[in-house]
């Protein structure tokens, strides 16, 4: 069986970091994800998708992401059945995040979205999160054009 979801969207609110009774970090947030097509009225529609992250991923998201930041979330869909205050049966869907990546650069945000880590220095590392954005700094050196020929 396969249950894999990849989303790219903007946070609709600041992440909320909480702790379970045993001290496990959990954060929840919502992503506004534009659809790739326009509706019959000619407007783009947006889906608002609830996301939950656990442990070090939760701490990472709550520390570096704020309302308006673009995020890429990799995870799985989870359906939960629950009972509301009036005793009615309810069902909700949410994405459980395994990995969360920056979807924009700090330059793109230019202070609009709050503090974010410097992309030249890595954020706290864990095997399931990435602080290095696409197109960020790397270990590769630029080739100079002293003699105008490529070295290969």
Topology:
Layout: E1 5-11, E2 16-19, E3 25-38, E4 44-54, H1 55-64, E5 70-83, E6 89-102, H2 106-109
Parallel strand pairs: 4-6
Antiparallel strand pairs: 1-3, 1-5, 2-3, 3-4, 5-6
Number of helices: 2
Shape: globular
Question: How much is the average pLDDT?
Answer: 80
Query: How do the SSEs run, as a string of H and E?
Result: EEEEHEEH
Low-confidence residue ranges: 110-136
Total count of strands: 6
Radius of gyration from CA coordinates: 19 Å
> How much helicity do the residues have?
under 10%
Strand proportion, as a percent range, falls in 35-45%
Distance between the termini: 45 Å
Structural class: mainly beta
Spatial strand sequence of the major β-sheet: 1-3-4-6-5
Structure description:
The structure is a single chain. The protein has helices at 55-64, 106-109, and strands at 5-11, 16-19, 25-38, 44-54, 70-83, 89-102. It has 152 residues and is mainly β. The chain starts with a strand and ends in a 43-residue tail after the last helix.
Give a brief rundown of this model.
By secondary structure, the chain is mainly beta. It is built from 2 helices and 6 strands, in the order E-E-E-E-H-E-E-H.
């Amino acid at each position: 069986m396969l249950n894999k979801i990849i989303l790219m969207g903007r946070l609709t609110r600041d992440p909320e970091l909480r702790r379970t009774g045993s001290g496990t970090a959990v954060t929840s947030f919502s992503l506004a994800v534009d659809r790739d097509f326009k509706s019959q009225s000619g407007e783009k529609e947006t889906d608002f998708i609830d996301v939950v992250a656990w442990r070090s991923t939760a701490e990472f998201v709550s520390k570096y992401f704020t309302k308006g930041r673009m995020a890429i979330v990799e995870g799985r869909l989870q359906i939960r059945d629950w009972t509301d205050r009036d005793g009615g049966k309810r069902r909700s869907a949410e994405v459980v995040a395994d990995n969360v990546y920056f979807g924009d650069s700090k330059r793109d945000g230019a202070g609009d979205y709050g503090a974010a880590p410097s992309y030249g220095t890595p954020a706290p590392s864990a095997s399931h999160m990435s602080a290095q954005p696409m197109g960020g700094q790397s270990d590769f050196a630029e080739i100079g054009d002293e003699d105008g020929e490529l070295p290969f």
